[in-house]
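Sequence only, no structure available. Ideas?
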Amino acid sequence: MTELAEKIFERIRAHGPIDFAQYMDAALYDEDYGFFMRPGRGPGADEASDFITSPEISPMFGAMLARYAGGLWESMGRPASFDVVEAGGGRGSLAEAFVDAAALEPWFDSLRYRIIDPIHRGESRQVTKASSRIELEGCQLEGPVAGLIFANELLDNIPERLWRFDGDEWRELKVGLNGEDLCMVDGERASPDLVEAENLCIDLSAPRAGEVRVGSAGALEWVKAAAEALVAGELLLIDYGDAPSASPFGGIRTFCGHTRGADPLEAPGEQDITLPINWMAISRAAESAGLVADHPTTQAEWLGGLGLAEEIASIREFERLATNSKESFDALGFRDRRMRAISLIDPAGLGAFTVFRARKGC
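Reply:
I predicted one. Tokens follow.
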């Protein structure tokens, strides 16, 4: 049993079952034993890390985002001050690649790049040595922001409550004890107002008896705060989202040592826990907060529209030239860059991620 599991056991023994959002918050963000609060845990391409995200796979992701931001700057009338706020900066890979690419652009002098850690990911503190153009801020997203608010794989780590449909009504699933194991137990019945607040039926599909769905209240609160902070520009979110799942945990995923699992109650503090995103609920929340939401697209389509395929073709040409000139080391380097860039648009992987955009005043 992990030290965090013992801590959670004591809490449940003293006060009874806890909701899943409380459990997930402890598992990921407990100040002593939480997964993201421990050095070295989280995203990265090395074997010691637990999962990999687009910025760690290829700096081309940050370069494409910079290209996208440049287009937004143009559409806003080339303002003298242009904010880019990254929520959940991880180890700073995205920020570094973005700033490197933006340094060559005419809008670079207008750029103010800020990183916030809205759910207490301390890893982004490592980016302090990368560039003086990157500002590190606290947990709160504060306005006014005139430009771009961006989050990559942030919403899936915001703790939410779990709900199960028993055939007649929704009941909350809580975390309790079964001997020396953590287990899910039935909690209180959800009122109609709570069903609406958690967006349990927003996709309009009829729930099946036994179906488990993840609530959305935490993610929607963050989206509304972002919309309030944005005075002009765009909110850009990238993450995955699944249809309601028949699994015991509503489609929740876990990651540890680049291995995917499905039991979030196993070894709390030792694995990442990620939740499916209800994009219909996100879109409605953004619209109700004063943003104009575009129809979601995939990461592959979004990056394709920014010219990633042409960049990959260019790298392939350099690879060919290096191979023909018998510069095998250079050829291998170009091939690695090309394959990493291709991974960003893989329809069976990151390319299938959802890209959500909502704008205000532009």
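The longest strand covers residues 230-239.
Hope that gets you unstuck.
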